[in-house]
Amino acid sequence: MDTIEIRRRIRTGEHTGPTSGISGDKVQANLAILPKKYAFDFLLFAMRNNKPVPIIEVLEAGEYVSRYAKDSDIRTDVPLYNIYKDGELVETVDDITSYWQDDFVTFLIGCSFTFEQAILDAGINIKHIDQGRNVAMYKTNIETESAGIFHGNTVVSMRPFKKELVDQVIDITNDFPNMHGGPVHVGDPSAIGINNIDQPDYGDAIEIGEGEVPVFWACGVTPQNVVLNAKPEILISHAPGHMFITDINNEEYKK
């Protein structure tokens, strides 16, 4: 299925779930939409925190068509959106047309689903994809570098792998520095402030089996965590795991 058809299926409500594994070799993107008055601070925040917030495109105020996705509409082409007002999640919707403002600036942020495809291409299974679940994501004690109103801690995604595969997985993901790159932590979750691995803050719990090691990557859900501190009057983001699908080949982001 090509990306135009995937976006059409999302737009019409035929696909409503997480997007992990559905776009093959095409880049998926996290989403952050803010009023223009916050755009510089957010862009500076992203530049200072490229690991969790790697920007791949910025749409100017009022624009909603990505140059990297033919016939796309940012307002309808994500399966689920989170609406935050004054730092509080107020609604999750499948269409943000009614919320749209002419001063909205949209940021598309690199997504770990890109390196997931590279892991799969290497013949390594990924547990949450095999189980048809969303990836597990956690708030951590890893601080970001603040910029303007934006400050807070990094969110990570977790995937368990057999111990003997961890080094190979690290090497694969290091090849995608603008898609979160290599992991920020391997092993003991408590070392990065995760007290209960069975209760993710976002996504679905994934069991860590015997002989498996949890591996953690910086995650594009970080802006949603940071907005809890910044409290702008509105921020619209993707619901975790529900991405915007572009026409860009993953290989274009391989170093």
Give a brief rundown of this model.
It comes from Jeotgalicoccus meleagridis. The chain folds into two domains: 3-112 and 225-253, PSTPO5379-like, CATH 3.40.1640.10; 121-218, PSTPO5379-like domain (PSTPO5379-like fold), CATH 3.30.2040.
Any descriptors?
about 260 residues, alpha+beta, PSTPO5379-like, PSTPO5379-like fold, 6 helices, about 20% helix, D-Glu_cyclase, EC 4.2.1.-, Putative_hydro-lyase
Task: Provide a descriptive summary of the structure in words.
The protein is globular, with a radius of gyration of 17 Å. A hairpin with a 2-residue loop joins strand 3 and strand 4 (88-93). The mean pLDDT is 95. The chain has 2 domains: 3-112 and 225-253, PSTPO5379-like, CATH 3.40.1640; 121-218, PSTPO5379-like fold, CATH 3.30.2040. The two termini are 27 Å apart. Helix content is 20%, strand content 27%. The protein has helices spanning 3-11, 39-48, 113-121, 127-130, 166-174, 222-230; strands at residues 26-35, 55-59, 81-85, 88-93, 104-110, 136-143, 153-162, 185-186, 212-218, 235-238, 244-249. With 255 residues, it is an alpha+beta fold.
Topology:
Layout: H1 3-11, E1 26-35, H2 39-48, E2 55-59, E3 81-85, E4 88-93, E5 104-110, H3 113-121, H4 127-130, E6 136-143, E7 153-162, H5 166-174, E8 185-186, E9 212-218, H6 222-230, E10 235-238, E11 244-249
Antiparallel strand pairs: 1-5, 1-10, 1-11, 2-5, 3-4, 3-10, 6-7, 7-9, 8-9
